[in-house]
Amino acid sequence: MNTSLSLSCLFARAAPLSRPTSRRAFRTCTHLRARPSPKHKSIKASDLGLAKKNEEHKSITGKDLRPYSEKEKAALAETYTPDQIAAIEAGEAAVDPQDLAEQGAMRVDPMRINYLDDFATIHPVVDKPIRAPEENYDPNLRFKTEDELAGDLTNWVNDLPDQPERLDWMKFMDNTRLTVGKPEAELNPRSYLAPEIPKLGLLKPATAESEEIDAPTRRLMRQTGFTYREIRRFRVKNLVQHRVVNQTRLGKIQSMYYLTVAGNGRGLIGVGEGKSAEPEEARTQAKNAAIRNMQPVPMYEGRTIFGDVKGKVSATEVELMTRPPGFGVRCQSLIFEMCRCAGIQDMAARVTRSRNHMNTVKATLQALLSQRLPEEIARARGRKLVDVRKVYYGGNV
Question: How far apart are CA 359 and CA 334, in angstroms?
Fold first, then answer.
């Protein structure tokens, strides 16, 4: 065997292993060595004064945490009961002021808060909205004694006219209070119990034409809470209708399909489907389903939508765009009818890809309900929302 040939084969096999293998770079950014050096040097937090201790926030010691004064106890007595005040004083006595001062030391790192927050002030952006104070609560509420009720009856008898009537007694029974305290606490008491569920059999439609209302409409009134007059005033439009066939072992069964949209013209819109062998019954099913599925649509100034939104159902994509006053509704017929039902007056729309009628209606409804309100965006960003038209134009725009 030739020795030179064997050595050449061995070196040929080992040669590819010693070469640097080219590897595909999956990073889209530039390599660190190829990046240009920054023009300015890095600035530390200590140079800006962020890492220094804030002089305004003085350290708290145990001597600063003094007990409640007599004036403060009198102010607490107006809100809390004596048992609650005793519990508060016991809790204050159980905590050592020195431990509280050590645990409540101020932070000096750059991520500290630049203000003292005792959670006594509600911030409208960060915290929940302020609720109105509940005036129908009285901690000192109690029932009247027998002597007090007898005194009320005696005063009523002394004030009776010469010829009393049954109406006087009814007024006395309705106006006589059984408790001592705030009147709101007895007339509209505060309760944490859930309200009772009303029985459907006791709910009757508030209309004089109850004898002429059919059964499906009665059921719709009980489910939605709308009156018969409100249901009749809704704008209803059949957008899609065609005949469908169901193949069974007995043969082909034909039915009518309807896709209907309903709205009140002031921000409510709903879409419903109905299918039946009789066209009239299918139309009624679609109408009732549309009214039952009504949902509020956010509208800017009561005429257009908030920004540009998109909706996608299957292969149909819909783009809705806001427009200035007087622009009108410029879109295809299906979206135009939905805007009329919802009360939208200025809007443009574009349907891309598939133009299936059923998917177009559903995608438009999905886009209308997916709007983001400016208040939600401001709350998410931690900003305060201000209407510049009221600031600069005095609300005349």
Answer: 11
Counting DSSP H helices and E strands in the chain, the numbers are 14, 10
Q: What is the DSSP letter of 56?
A: S
Are 263 and 234 within 8 A, CB to CB? yes
Q: Is the pTM of this model over 0.90?
A: no
* 12 pLDDT above the threshold of 60: no
End-to-end CA distance of the chain: 101
Amino acid found at 353: R
What DSSP letter does each residue of 329-392 carry, written as one string?
EES-HHHHHHHHHHT--SEEEEEEE---HHHHHHHHHHHHHT---HHHHHHHHT-----HHHHH
317 beta partners: 312, 352
Token look-up 């007339």 returns: 187
* Cβ 316 vs Cβ 243: under 8 Å: no
d(CA 126, CA 167): 55
Instruction: Identify whether the C-beta of residue 309 lies closer than 8 Å to the C-beta of residue 264.
Output: no
Of 176, 171, 201, the C-alpha closest to 187 is 176
The angle subtended at Cα 236 by Cα 231 and Cα 239, nearest 5°, is 155
Question: Does pLDDT of 345 surpass 90?
Answer: yes
Q: State the Cα–Cα distance between residues 379 and 382, nearest whole angstrom.
A: 5
Can you tell me the distance from the alpha carbon of 318 to that of 338, in angstroms, rounded to the nearest whole number?
A: 13
Tens-digit pLDDT profile for residues 98-125: 877 777 666 677 676 666 666 666 666 6
Residue 8 burial by CB count (10 A; 0-12/13-18/19+): exposed, middle or buried? exposed
Rounded Cα distance, 155 and 158, in Å: 5
pLDDT at 45: 67
